Every structure is written in structure tokens, then in C-alpha cells.
Automatic annotation (TrEMBL):
GO terms for cellular component: cytoplasm. It comes from Seminavis robusta. PANTHER family: N-ACETYLGLUTAMATE SYNTHASE, N-ACETYLGLUTAMATE SYNTHASE, MITOCHONDRIAL. The keyword ATP-binding applies. GO terms for biological process: L-arginine biosynthetic process. Pathway: Amino-acid biosynthesis; L-arginine biosynthesis; N(2)-acetyl-L-ornithine from L-glutamate: step 2/4. The keyword Signal applies. It comes from the Eukaryota. It holds the Pfam family AA_kinase. This is acetylglutamate kinase. Its EC number is 2.7.2.8. Keywords: Amino-acid biosynthesis, Arginine biosynthesis, ATP-binding, Kinase, Nucleotide-binding, Signal, Transferase. Residues 61-299 form the Aspartate/glutamate/uridylate kinase domain.
Length: 326
């Protein structure tokens, strides 16, 4: 009950004070929301708690890995971009790092290029990287930045090759698989990101990196989870969120782990509780925390307005997920 009420309160407050256009589902008058959701005391408690969280995060950086169903569902996509715009309007600096695996796979099939995965990473030949760059840096990247702007925010779409944002070397898989041109991020041009954030602009980053030295003209396909975790760490972000298509990290009985430590994660990978595409998420959530990020969350991107719920909700209205700690 308090979840929907508190989110409605945040969005309606933004509408009243900043001109934010909220979703129709939260456009009821505040008096009606209060009557439906609880007493005046409950209303005040929610307002105070959300206000406290928002105040603590003003001027702070939040990095979000955005992918999965949250990108392919029109309703979830609109809600996500509204969330980014809303967070900007209350002074929180947001960096979006997006994926686009389904879109890449569809285009690869269309053009007849074979692809496969090893250890959660797409094996990337030159042809695969060409298609990935076309899809991610083209239609996907620009659609996200444009939709954030349409929701009342400010955003610019860039790739990891722009101004050498993500400098990479070839990633060597620990199991001996040749992943092709999959990039391991060596450096992040944080100055570029900080300049955009200080100007009130959300960088929307497409995870295609660039080589170093004699390989500076080589494009590398970078896992979006990898890129988000490294960017968050280098920026010293307050939080990094990985939006997924499941509730968070699950045990073998499909039950959620609310929190996991670095040592927990190592053990769960070793006994194959954590497998496939979840491995990069937990690994780079761990790396981000070790680099000094205030908190790393792996949470369900299928929940409407998952971003704003997790960032502003805390224990009160957070959308669940798994919190990764040292």
C-alpha cells in the first residue's frame, strides 16, 4: 500500500514544483491519493522519508545499467525515462549505460551472422561487433536519450568510442575461450562524464569501446554490466543499479538473496548457483563496491518505475532485489 502511495507522492511533488509531467497512473490529486492509501500520518511519514532520501542524494551520481524487458516493453521504457527525468529534477546526477542484446541478436539473424555465448559473454567477431555498434550506437542509444528528453529531462547519447570514453584491451576468458573482440575496460574518461553531469545532462552510454595505442581504431564489444560497474567505480558513484529480468540473485530453489557479500558471491559462482548472464552482473557489482561505490543493487527491471523506487525508496518502498556489499 505504501509503495504506490510514496511513488505517487514523489512524482506528483515533482509535477507541482518542477513541471514534471507524470504518468497517467499517478496523476490523481494528492488528497485523493492520501484518502485511498492511508491516514494523514502515513502520508506525512512517506513524504518525510522520501524527502530525506532525496536530500541525501542531491548532487550525487547514480549509474544505471538498463536492459532486458525494461527496454523492450513500451510501458516500462516510458516509465524508466520518466524516472531518469524525475531524478534529474531533484538534483540527482544519472548515468545510463544500456544494453541491447535482443536487438543485436535480431539484426544478426537478419543479416545472417552467426553468434554464440561463452560464460555470459557474446563471442564477438569483427562482423558481430560491426552489427552491435550499428544497433547500439544507432537506433537504441538515440531512442533512449530522446525519450528521456521527451519526459522532461536532459540527455545525450554517446558511445564508448566518443572522446575515448572506454579504452579497452582484448578480454581473455579465464576458461580459455576466445571471445573475439570483447573488450576489457582499462580506463574510463571520467572527465567527459563529469562535464556532462555538471551541465545537468544525463550521459546515455552505448557500450562499444575503443582500442589503445596501435589498436586505437579497433572497436570492442563491451558487456553493458561490465561497463556500468566500471563507470560507477571510476566516478565514485553513490549507487549503481543493474536492472534485470528477474527479481535479483536467486538460490537454487529460486528464492531471492536480499544481500550478498563478496565472499558469498565467489562461493555461489563456484557451486554454480550463479551462472550465465548473472555472472557479469554480480562480478561487476562486486568490483564497483570494491572501487568505492556506496551500494550496488541487482533489481527487477520488470517492475514499473523500478529505478525511482529503488533510488528513492530505500527500505520503505524499494523494489526488492539483491544488495551487494563488501
Amino acid at each position: 500500500m505504501m509503495k504506490s502511495f510514496a511513488i505517487a507522492l514523489v512524482l506528483l511533488s515533482l509535477q507541482a514544483t518542477h513541471g514534471f509531467v507524470s504518468s497517467p497512473r499517478v496523476s490523481r490529486p494528492l488528497t485523493k491519493v492520501a484518502a485511498e492509501e492511508g491516514s494523514g500520518d502515513s502520508f506525512a511519514d512517506a513524504a518525510l522519508q522520501v524527502s530525506a532520501v532525496a536530500g541525501d542524494l542531491q548532487g550525487q551520481i547514480v549509474v544505471v545499467k538498463y536492459g532486458g524487458n525494461a527496454m523492450t516493453s513500451p510501458e516500462l521504457k516510458a516509465g524508466f525515462c520518466q524516472d531518469v527525468a524525475a531524478l534529474q529534477k531533484i538534483g540527482i546526477k544519472v548515468v545510463v549505460v544500456h544494453g541491447g542484446g535482443p536487438q543485436i541478436s535480431k539484426m544478426l539473424e537478419t543479416v545472417g551472422v552467426e553468434t554464440r555465448f561463452e560464460g555470459g559473454f557474446r563471442v564477438s567477431s569483427t562482423e558481430v561487433v560491426d552489427v552491435a555498434e550499428m544497433v547500439l550506437c544507432g537506433s537504441v542509444n538515440k531512442e533512449i536519450s530522446s525519450t528521456i528528453c521527451s519526459a522532461g529531462g536532459r540527455a545525450i547519447g554517446i558511445s564508448g568510442r566518443d572522446d575515448s570514453l572506454l579504452k579497452c584491451t582484448k578480454q581473455i576468458n579465464e576458461d580459455g575461450f576466445d571471445l573475439g573482440f570483447v573488450g576489457q575496460v582499462e580506463t574510463v574518461n571520467t572527465k567527459l562524464l563529469e562535464q556532462l553531469l555538471d551541465a545537468g545532462i544525463c550521459p546515455v552510454v552505448s557500450p562499444i569501446g575503443t582500442g589503445i595505442g596501435e589498436e586505437k581504431d579497433i572497436a570492442y564489444n563491451v558487456n553493458a554490466d561490465v561497463a556500468a560497474g566500471r563507470i560507477a567505480g571510476e566516478l565514485g558513484a553513490s549507487r549503481v543499479l543493474f536492472l534485470t529480468d528477474i527479481a535479483g540473485v536467486l538460490n537454487k530453489d529460486m528464492e531471492l538473496f536480499p544481500t550478498l557479500s563478496v565472499d558469498d558471491i565467489k562461493g555461489l559462482i563456484a557451486d554454480e548457483t550463479i551462472t550465465g548472464g548473472m555472472i557479469p552482473k554480480v562480478s561487476y557489482a562486486t568490483s564497483a563496491v570494491q572501487l568505492g561505490v556506496g551500494g550496488a543493487f541487482i533489481t527487477d527491471g520488470r517492475v514499473p518505475h523500478a529505478l525511482i523506487k529503488q533510488v528513492l525508496g530505500g527500505d520503505m518502498i524499494g523494489s526488492g532485489g539483491t544488495f551487494v556489499t563488501l
